Q: What sequence folds into this?
């Protein structure tokens, strides 16, 4: 890994560190958006909405420093992959921030509506998605391909949870038409969680790409025999 | 010392030649030869006895090569720059995690406890790659800049979900060692404190809700016994039997809730004992045989105890996992069920899977993701009739989280269900820590 120009090493380390910092902020915003749904806390939701801007700024800064590094050092092979992947991961994390912001936005009207039993299923799915994201970021920080593959292979648990909650919410809305408004908000929150799960898988794929120089294909999806993993 | 013997001998030879040279005709030639012999002896001695070379040349005991390797800013450096001796031993043995970070954010030192808590810690790695919580990163960065001590709380978002308090200070630059300012970080684990608080409220919420039904039924029967059934011994006997069953159910529920509480409290503490899960499963299966016979069920055990697999675990908890799964298979495996126990190695190695399969009616697909939820039952009445508390799989999930393992559930309606426990083998990260 050592380069003749020691400051290039420093550049790469700093890029990696910025990704971890962005990851930390994305995790926190996501966790807080889930808390705001669970605890019906509109103030917390507003905090998430306001802080998403920080994540956007971090993405712009990172992109700029990656472009500068590529232009200045003209990296090849592994170094180039690290930098390309850094750009992609930072925009993925920025998307996760946006989705968290969207969850928080929906938590505000939910906080003034009647509490519903369904939120517990959703926070459970949220916690599972959170663990996956955290694992993917750990895999990136320590270049752990096995851990990345684990994340990649487990995403369909989240897809299955999504399907189960979808059915649950639909039934709920059919039973009582007054709850259609709340149900629609919950449906969007669940969809956002499923999207965050997919973005997480993409981070895992990029970790694999950095280390192996190849891309992963044909991610396992929830299959009709109903093979499901009940979280680690 | 042999080297010096050589040099002295060759010098004698040289001086003999020199002495001859003064007598004989071609003095400059012989004098040059003498010098060559002496120089040759020196290099030869050097090559023969390399260990003794150098030390005499350099009063500080350093050879040139060592100095070039000791570059303290190179990313490959593995050693720590920490002063050796007593101070270092002292900090190394502090039970809580302690680490130091350079001005550029690189980890320069961490003690044994920190290495155990954060296996991804490496010298020269950036600290944000190890702990990325925004509050923590901001506090370390600020303290490095202004030298003001800070404290901050942060949580990790993996399945163990820990809460830490970080105390951050800055050292002055050490001029003697050209060692710049460092942030010194000391971490305190607050997970247990926080969990104790949360658990108290969880316990009350769960227990009160679930205990209400049996309690209401017992109160109802007591009222009947006090009034209508006062003089009816036959009814009394029947009611008392029902009351006993309900009271037993309450007791089981309280036992399970307390057991779940204990497991949750320790969920973030990694188990330290190396155990053979195959032999634990065999024992559990044997212990369940009488119960299976009572129900007319069969337990087939297809395990090879001779492979000698080891995982880091807690014996009682692993027994509880296997017993709960076997118990479920017997309870919900339908009439005269056939329960099969088998093992499989993970595809990429490093993992062992132990499967309990039943021949029951199977579980609908949309119910599977909710199975490990507390008090979730696929079929409430069937579960209650069988004395289930709705906590069995929640307990299994929490124990496996602590063990770094997971539960895999595969089921097809009409074809039975397979519950596989995946556990990481012992010899990977744990034994290195």
A:
């Amino acid at each position: 890994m050592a380069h003749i120009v020691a400051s290039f090493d420093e550049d790469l380390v700093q890029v990696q560190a910025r990704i971890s910092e962005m990851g930390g902020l994305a995790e926190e915003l996501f966790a807080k958006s889930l808390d705001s749904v669970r605890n019906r806390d509109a103030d917390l939701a507003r905090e998430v909405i306001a802080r998403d801007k920080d994540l956007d700024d971090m993405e712009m800064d990172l992109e700029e420093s990656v472009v500068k590094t590529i232009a200045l050092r003209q990296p090849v092979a592994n170094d180039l992959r690290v930098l390309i992947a850094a750009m992609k991961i930072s925009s993925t994390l920025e998307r996760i921030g946006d989705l968290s912001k969207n969850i928080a936005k929906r938590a505000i009207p939910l906080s003034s509506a009647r509490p519903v039993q369904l939120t517990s299923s959703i926070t459970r799915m949220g916690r599972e998605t959170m663990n996956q994201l955290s694992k993917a970021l750990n895999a990136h920080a320590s270049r752990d391909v096995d851990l990345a593959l684990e994340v990649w292979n487990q995403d369909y648990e989240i897809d299955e949870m999504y399907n189960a909650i979808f059915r649950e919410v639909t039934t709920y809305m059919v039973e009582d038409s007054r709850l259609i408004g709340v149900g629609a908000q919950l449906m969007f929150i669940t969809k956002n969680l499923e999207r965050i799960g997919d973005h997480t898988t993409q981070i895992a794929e990029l970790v694999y790409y950095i280390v192996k120089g190849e891309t992963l294909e044909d991610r396992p999806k929830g299959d009709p025999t109903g093979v499901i993993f009940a979280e680690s | 010392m042999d080297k010096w013997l050589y040099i002295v001998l060759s010098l004698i030879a040289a001086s003999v030649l020199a002495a001859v040279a003064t007598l004989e005709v071609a003095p400059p030639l012989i004098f040059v030869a003498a010098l060559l012999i002496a120089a040759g002896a020196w290099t030869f001695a050097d090559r023969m006895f390399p260990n003794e070379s150098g030390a005499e040349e350099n009063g500080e005991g350093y050879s040139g090569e060592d100095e070039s390797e000791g570059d303290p800013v190179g990313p490959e450096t593995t050693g720590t720059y920490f002063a050796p001796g007593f101070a270092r031993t002292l900090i190394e043995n502090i039970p809580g995690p302690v680490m130091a970070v350079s001005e550029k954010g690189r980890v320069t030192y961490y003690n044994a406890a920190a290495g155990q808590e954060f296996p991804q810690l490496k010298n020269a790695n950036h600290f944000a790659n190890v702990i990325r919580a925004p509050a923590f990163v901001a506090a370390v960065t600020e303290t490095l800049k202004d030298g003001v001590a800070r404290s901050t709380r942060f949580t990790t978002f993996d399945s163990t979900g820990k809460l830490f308090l970080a105390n951050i200070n800055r050292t002055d630059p050490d001029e003697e060692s050209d060692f710049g300012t460092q942030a010194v970080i000391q971490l305190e684990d607050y997970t247990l404190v926080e969990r104790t608080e949360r658990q108290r409220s969880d316990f009350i919420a769960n227990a009160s809700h679930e205990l209400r039904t049996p309690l209401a039924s017992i109160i109802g029967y007591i009222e009947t016994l006090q009034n209508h059934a006062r003089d009816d011994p036959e009814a009394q006997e029947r009611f008392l039997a029902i009351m006993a069953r309900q009271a037993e159910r309450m007791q089981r529920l309280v036992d399970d809730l307390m057991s779940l509480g204990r497991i949750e409290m320790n969920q973030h503490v990694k188990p330290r004992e190396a155990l053979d899960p195959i032999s634990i499963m065999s024992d559990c299966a044997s212990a369940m045989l009488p119960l299976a016979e009572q129900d007319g069920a069969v337990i087939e055990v297809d395990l090879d105890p001779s492979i000698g697999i080891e995982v880091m675990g807690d014996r009682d908890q692993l027994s509880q996992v296997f017993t709960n799964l076997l118990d479920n298979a017997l309870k919900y495996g339908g009439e005269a069920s056939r329960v099969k126990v088998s093992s499989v190695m993970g595809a990429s190695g490093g993992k062992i899977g132990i499967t309990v399969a039943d021949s029951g009616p199977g579980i609908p697909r949309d119910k599977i993701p909710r199975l490990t939820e507390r008090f979730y039952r696929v079929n409430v009445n069937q579960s209650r009739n069988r004395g289930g508390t709705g906590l069995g799989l929640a307990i299994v999930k929490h124990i496996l989280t602590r063990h770094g393992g997971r539960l895999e559930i595969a089921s097809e309606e009409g074809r039975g269900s397979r519950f596989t426990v995946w556990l990481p083998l012992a010899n990977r990260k744990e034994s290195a820590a």
Notes: Chain A touches chain B at residues 1-2, 6, 9-10, 13-14, 16-18, 20-21, 23-25, 27-28, 31, 121, 124, 130-131, 133-135, 137-138, 141-142, 146, 149, 157, 160-161, 163-164, 167, 225-232 (CB under 8 Å). The longest strand of chain A covers residues 227-229.
